[in-house]
Amino acid sequence: MSHPQATSAQEIAAWRRSLLAHDEFLRDDLDELEAHVRTAVEAQIAEGLPESEAAAYAIRDLGTPADIAAEYAKIDPNRVWRRRLRRMLAGALIGPVAVLV
Question: How many CA atoms lie within 13 A of 38 on its CB side?
Answer without folding.
Answer: 10
